Structures are given as C-alpha cells and as structure tokens.
Amino acid sequence: DTGVSQNPRHKITKRGQNVTFRCDPISEHNRLYWYRQTLGQGPEFLTYFQNEAQLEKSRLLSDRFSAERPKGSFSTLEIQRTEQGDSAMYLCASSPLAGVGEQYFGPGTRLTVT
Amino acid sequence: QKEVEQDPGPLSVPEGAIVSLNCTYSNSAFQYFMWYRQYSRKGPELLMYTYSSGNKEDGRFTAQVDKSSKYISLFIRDSQPSDSATYLCAILNRDDKIIFGKGTRLHILP
User: Strand pairing of B98-100 and B104-109?
Assistant: First the structure.
C-alpha cells in the first residue's frame, strides 16, 4: 500500500498523559500536513512541513502540541498533558510540492481523552 | 463570515437520482477548489481538484466552479448507495493551506 499511513488508529488516554502519533506520507511527497477534525466539522489545519522544515503552525496548536519530521520522511505529533478538549480525529496528509492542493489523507488517529 | 460555507445536511436522495452538493466561499482570490469524500471513521479522499471556473468531469462526478458568484458545486449522476458519505468542499488559500467546509452528509436510499 503506497498511501498515507497513520499509527495508532485509536488512542484512549487519561487526562494529563502525553501521547504521540506517527504519520508516514506517500514517499515522493515533499509536504506533510497535520489536521484535527471534530464531529460534524471539516478538518482544521494544525501545521505543515516541507521536507524537514516546519513552515507554519496554526493558532490552534497550543504549546502542548509539538510536531517533528526528522529527515523529511515520517512525522510525529505529540500532545503533552492531554485535556478532554483534545479528543478528536488527528489527520495527516501529504502532497507533492508542485500540487499542494492535491493532498492525500491517511486514515487518521482517533484520540479519546478520559 | 466563514471562508467556506456548506450546508451540513443530511441530504437523502433515492438511488439513481442526480445529487447536487454546493458551497460558497468568501474570498474572490481563491483559485483552487477541491471536493473530498469521507466515509464514517475514515480519512477524507480527494475526489476532484479544479483550478478554473467551469466544469470538470470525472466519471459520474462533475465539479463546477462559478467564480463570479463564489459558488462551487459537485454533481453525482446515477447515484449509488456506496456514494453515501460526507462530502467536503475545500479551497486552497494563498498560504497553501486547505480550508474545508463542514461537510454535507449524503444518504442514497436503495
């Protein structure tokens, strides 16, 4: 399968714990994006990378959130001291540099904070 | 005003009917328009991607953009139960970020 993959698919954690999600993009894609989606809403942009450089972070991304893309391949999104409001689907997408509108999404990681 | 507005539905139509899904957007500078399909508990799947005004067809799907009225549409011909999903319209803004509508839930009734 050459699509975008995300792990884990589901994560249940207690409030205050740290969680980390992983995204493996389509191999030839330079750009990698993280989005958050809550029930009844479209995905909301969080941050994106071009190769290993993090180019932009949304105001939605509080200091408890950090993302990395070492070596410009896979990416991780970490949430520290989780809160119940962090419960959502976290989506990763990738695109080629020449077609940034053609973003291909992974299946998402569903986070539940209890 | 939100950048992309979309009626959340749900929209129920009988199998075989033509489905019309619509969005409006606020900024006339937007030039790239997309439609994504999202099944329950799955990631969005890119269906159509268009740059200009006019129509773009792909199989049973037609995307239409009217820049003068800032209106984008997706038509589905010969609708099937497997088309039941949430359809998200989206635009690419000048910062290369995709802004999504809330999505319209579509039910095709057998």
Answer: unpaired
Encode pLDDT of A42-52 as tens digits.
Answer: 999 999 999 99
Contact A95, A88 (CB under 8 A): no
Q: How far is A80 from chain B (nearest CA, A)?
A: 24
Whose tokens are 């937007």? That residue is B30
Which residues of chain A lie closer than 8 angstroms to B102, CB-CB? 40-42
User: For residue B35, what are its two tokens?
Assistant: 């439609």
How high is the pLDDT of residue B1? 66
Contact B45 A108 (CB under 8 A): no
B77 CB contacts (<8 Å, ≥6 apart)? B18, B60, B61, B62
A56/B contact by beta carbon, under 8 A: yes
Residue of B nearest to A58 (CA): B97
Phi-psi category of residue A16: left, alpha or beta, with phi > 0 → left and psi -120 to 50 → alpha: left
Cβ atoms of A96 and A30 closer than 8 Å: yes
DSSP state of A70: G
